[in-house]
Amino acid sequence: MYVASIYLFMALFPTPLATIHDRDHPHIMKQRMRGVTLATLVSLAATSIVLWHWQSPDVRQIVSQLGLDPRTAVPSVVVALVLMCVLFLGPLITSHLEGGCGWDVLKRVPSSLWNQPIYLRNYVVGPITEELVFRSCVVALWSASNLSMTMCVFVSPVIFGVAHVHRAVSLYVKGDALGRILLSTLLQLLYTTVFGWIAAGLFVRTRSVMGPIVAHIFCNLQGLPDFAKASQYPSYKYFIWLAFVVGLVGFLVLFEPMTRPGVFVPE
């Protein structure tokens, strides 16, 4: 339903200035954002109704299962930010060397969100709606179906990854080479699935969707790690490579203790 809503709104409110495949056209982006917002609200309502009938009609329990309990929101955000900063240690260092982590850049974010739909899509609407659907709804329903946490964390993100494959159709319509389309689609499927594992793990361990949302925004801001950038700074090359390795190892080592109930997240 989430993916279908993207194309449904564009079909209902077309524009002669762009086609359904022009995903970065302002009108198309606005229609897509309206569609996914509606789909998210419907998904949350439907999931709540299902949980109400499957389990006890306890509103607080349902809110907690959806990861919307305000008591776990702040700890989840803090844990997610720390873990993402550790994981992206290498890219953050290269961004700093490029001057991309300054306060002047951060000051431009609010105006960019307001004036450019692409920023609103990538850093607000996209992360929030995707995490509410693919984490709050999907994981909650899978968990209520007595599926194991391993299934919820490692299998449900595959749905999240597959949900991004539809972009291959737009690339094909635009005339991109099949080899390039296949490579970019497989790379995106891999990247989104791996991120889905992280987000689902954060959701299950912190019992809040806020951490995954913040992690999603962080990853969208950073993009795919560019390992080739290390060669652009010969004086810091080995330091940057070390930062990539330390970041990955540090993330893997810190994930369990930081998300352990009673450490940062309330039991």
In short:
This protein is mostly helical and 267 residues long.
Can you describe what's shown?
The model has no long low-confidence stretch (mean pLDDT 85). Helix 8 (117-144) runs antiparallel to helix 10 (156-162) and helix 8 (117-144) packs across helix 12. The chain contains 14 helices and no strands. The protein has helices at residues 2-12, 26-54, 59-65, 70-87, 89-97, 103-107, 109-115, 117-144, 149-154, 156-162, 167-173, 178-206, 210-222, 237-259. The chain has 267 residues and is mostly helical.
Key structural traits:
267 residues; mainly alpha
What is the H/E order? HHHHHHHHHHHHHH
Residues in β-strands, percent: under 5%
| Total beta-strand segments | 0
- Structural category is mainly alpha
What form results from the Cα inertia axes? globular
Average pLDDT level: 85
Termini separation (Å)?
34 Å
Biggest sheet statistics: none
Helix and strand arrangement:
Elements: H1 2-12, H2 26-54, H3 59-65, H4 70-87, H5 89-97, H6 103-107, H7 109-115, H8 117-144, H9 149-154, H10 156-162, H11 167-173, H12 178-206, H13 210-222, H14 237-259
